Amino acid sequence: MNTSSVSRRQLTLEPNDTRRLSELSGQFHEHIKLIEQRLGVSVHSRGNHFRIEGPAGQVNSAVNVLETLYAETGQRDHLDAEAVHMLLTTLDDEAAPLAPSAGPEADTALFTKRGAIRARGENQKRYVEALLANDISFGVGPAGTGKTYLAVAAAVHLLEKDEIRRIMLVRPAVEAGEKLGFLPGDLTEKINPYLRPLYDALYEMLGFERVAKLIEKQVIEIAPLAYMRGRTLNNAFIILDEGQNTTPEQMKMFLTRLGFGSKAVITGDITQVDLPRGQESGLAHALGVLHEVRGIHITRFTSRDVVRHRLVQAIVEAYEAYEPLHKPAGRPARGRSGADADPRPDTGEEA
């Protein structure tokens, strides 16, 4: 770093609260290290006194982030790396002052047995609001953006409030580029490997024993997509995960299962279709067909919404840049319908 261009600022965070300062720093100072890496600054602290060094613009951004995160610690018991990541991502997207998000997050909090689950970033907030307000919602975008996790959280939230009577987890049994062979066991055991992400979220929110009891009582039901035909689902929250691996016929069949008092959520990533080559994705087809239907909400996530390890965001962005330039000539773009399955680029919309 060129010392002639280094700017320094002193920052004192009030009140001087040991717990909040510990949450701000993170375990082994992981939050401070993340801020340093992303903004290219050095952060030194003693108690509630901070010294930030680096390029002038980045130093000002770091001060803004530290003040905003410290305000967050006054609104929540635990500040995790995801919150820091999303705040820094917002800073990347909008070179504008950041305001504490505790107020809006409180509005979009989902309450489960294990505590409140809050949306990260504006797109997730819009998604959670859509899940609660609309009978059919789509969450479309890359891995790591919280599409499935928040859908499960919304289902648990409504179950705990007695607004629904059961949760249904549905997924097409399509192998992700591998031949898994014959799977032994009954229907539930056969479909379990495909539903593991949904199970993991349920265990985190309700606990292993309660999930097992709810499955036994069929309050939580697991079903492969093919077994949904002919059913009408009332007072249920139905989650169709990996929707990009449905055919248009399967997607239409699923969407027409909705009964009174029910909500359906379809999640998927149309860049990761595992259907046979040449087979159109039912998710992409549905986005084109339904984008003007009132009461259906479509939330589109991008790499900027990734809340996993920072490298996941970088990987998604690298693939997004690489694939359009290296698509084999003559190969149809799976997951698109006609000239364009959905011409609108909005990240959050209500059809």
- Count every beta strand, where a strand is a DSSP E run of 2 or more residues: 12
What structural class results from the helix and strand content? alpha/beta
Number of helices: 13
Shape: globular
Mean pLDDT: 81
Low-pLDDT sequence parts:
93-106, 176-180, 335-347
Write down the secondary-structure element order.
EHHEEHHHEEHEHEHHHEEHEHEHE
**Ends distance:** 50 Å
Please give the radius of gyration in angstroms: 22 Å
The largest pleated sheet is described as: 7 strands, mixed
Neighbour order of strands in the largest sheet: 8-7-9-10-6-11-12
**β content, as a range?**
15-25%
Q: What is the share of helical residues?
A: 40-55%
Secondary structure layout:
Layout: E1 7-12, H1 18-25, H2 30-39, E2 42-46, E3 49-54, H3 56-73, H4 81-93, H5 102-107, E4 110-112, E5 115-117, H6 121-133, E6 136-140, H7 147-160, E7 166-171, H8 187-191, H9 196-206, H10 208-216, E8 220-224, E9 236-240, H11 248-255, E10 263-268, H12 282-290, E11 296-300, H13 310-326, E12 348-350
Parallel strand pairs: 6-10, 6-11, 7-8, 7-9, 9-10
Antiparallel strand pairs: 1-3, 2-3, 4-5, 11-12
